[in-house]
Amino acid sequence: MQLSTKHLIGIKELSKEDIILILQTANNFKEVLQRPVKKVPSLRDVTIVNLFYENSTRTRISFELAEKRLGADTINFSASSSSAAKGETLLDTVNNILSMKVDMVVMRHAASGAAHFLAQHLPNTAIVNAGDGTNEHPTQALLDAFSIQEKLGSLAGKKIVLVGDIMHSRVALSNIYLLKKMDAEVMVAGPPTLIPKYIEEALGVKVEYNLQKALEWCDVANVLRIQLERQKKVLFSTLREYNLSYGVTKKMLESVGKEIVIMHPGPMNRGVEIDSDVADGKNSIILNQVENGVAVRMAVLYLLAERVKVDDLK
């Protein structure tokens, strides 16, 4: 089997079969990562550029590690220390890099649609979206799905609530697309100012403004970061007020009366959207998400490279 697309721009463009293939391949790579020798030479002759126009810790390190585990040659690009800081355009930067015969670009950018723009202009190079503005973050959704499946056995029929800043979260949008395609039930919960209008009708998700009710409904709570850097105006009074109404605390989870799987894509604002005793508690799979990120990104890179090889033979 192979992917139906040569780029990973977003979950919206993937089929259910694509998602299943990526998750199955990730499971195989996770087994590889448990071995004493964790490298496989699958991408030995592939050159990948990590093109990050925004700061990143987990995603960037995870991609770099995945590339090294697959034996790829990697080039790391940071906008702040490149000609982009002098005014060079995105397309000029990428064309300059591609003139060095690069096979794949992993990009994070503050502008929504940046990865799609690259794919249109560079059709012969595989583009992997590592997050574009408030649009999508497909590999995060894939590793979240992989982590839920690993914990609960399947995604179909499971009730997942995304809690917090839905308005500005590319993680939320990619998760919604993926979970709906995999037949899970999805709810978003948070203050009305942080949940887009018409999201229920547009994306087919439930909306709940009462966190207690949302937690009573769900099997999994994926808690999202408050993205103050993307908020153009004041959308709630104070972080303390937010924590009192929408922070996931140990006391609130105990009052729900059932066990809920706790997730967070990071970075966490401890004491704001999630308390430390919840993030570090027995029902948290946050560190599993980080671990699974490497296997999922290995799967994505490997499958895209295989798709490019097949296209080149045509």
Keywords:
314 residues; alpha/beta; Rossmann fold; 2 domains; 5-stranded parallel β-sheet; 12 helices; globular
Task: Briefly say what this structure is.
The protein has 314 residues and is α/β, with parallel strands linked by helices.
Give a description of the structure:
This protein is an alpha/beta fold. The chain folds into two domains: about 150 residues, Rossmann fold (3-Layer(aba) Sandwich), CATH 3.40.50.1370; about 150 residues, 3-Layer(aba) Sandwich (Rossmann fold), CATH 3.40.50.1370. It is built from twelve helices and nine strands. It has a five-stranded parallel β-sheet. A four-stranded parallel β-sheet has the order 2-1-3-4, sandwiched between helices. Helix 5 crosses helix 6 and helix 5 packs across helix 12. The two termini are about 15 Å apart.
